[in-house]
Fold:
Amino acid sequence: MKRTLDEMTGLRGAAAFLICLNHTLLLVPALYQSALSPFLMRCGLLGMSLFFCLSGFVIYYNYAERLQSSSGLEVIRFFIARFARIYPLYVIFLLGFTVFNLIRTQGPHLQANLTALPVFLSCMQSWFFGIINGFQVVHLQGSANISWSISTEFGLYCLFVPLAFLLKWKKTHVRVLLFTAGMVLLHVAYVQFCHASGVAEAMASLFSCTPEQTFFHLVNYSPLGRLPEFLAGCGAAMFFDLGMPPEGYPRMRRVLFAAAFLLVLDSCTWRFFSFPRSDFSLLSLAVVLVVFASVLGRSRILSSRVFLFMGDVSYSVYLLHIVFVMLLCYRGERTASMLSTLAVFFPAVYLCAWLCFRFYEMPCRKKIRTFFNIAKA
Structure:
């Protein structure tokens, strides 16, 4: 059995925290007018890219060899294991918001929510672009629409099963680095293609919506748009599997972390790289560099107790924090009230997430795995 990589758990905690930071703009809308706004807005892009890149690392690291060398039964076990990981909390989260929407919404909006509910329950809402009663499908279900990423994640699982066999090639450090660099370039090319090819405009005309909506779906929501980031994470796992010196590559780690920091800084303020839709490309590249740097040696920070705790409860944090955004939302402009709202928000989210993780998530995973006799991974 492969050893647990604490650094990846810590990075997952950082990704969830970045999403929470991004949604402080919804918690305290006055922050849109602050100097922090550019950074907070990009925290969402960073956090989601980090989630999908990490997902590629974890899925390849734990399942690639099993899927490549085993029978079809291993594919079934793979999907059962992933179902046990994401669905028990997801279905409670979604049905809870469904009840809330029945009370708070009405007319065409309520009808659209109910019509799209089976698609959400089957985790396929982000797989295609659709409009119901004038509402984009992926944006339905009220604040539960953050579950689009769960749908995208499940779509990547489905794509990974056949891709696992294509990734069964003789690997060297150079080949893996070239593969990962190719995935980064593919992501940049995909973003530019969606921006300049007229595809977004054609889809907008077909669905009577804006090109911005269709572009954002193709690049941000669609599993195909996230596939290069996922495969770049697979590349980091391949590199790690090839083995490294006990001390790792400390100088290279520092260089990659520094380069990632500069890319984020440029995206937020400098704007030295100003090609179209550069945010999507630069932040994704920064995430890949961070994940790659994390496998080049041990990190005391990412493997600390604080980050491990944040990583363990990250899934609960991701889904449940939006509930606290709704409960604590402050629309005034008094600085003291803003700070007190933020001071309550983060402890409340992490306390509730820990309780959910400890007394619901883990017991559900264990029962499902035990019922199907699936080993932990």
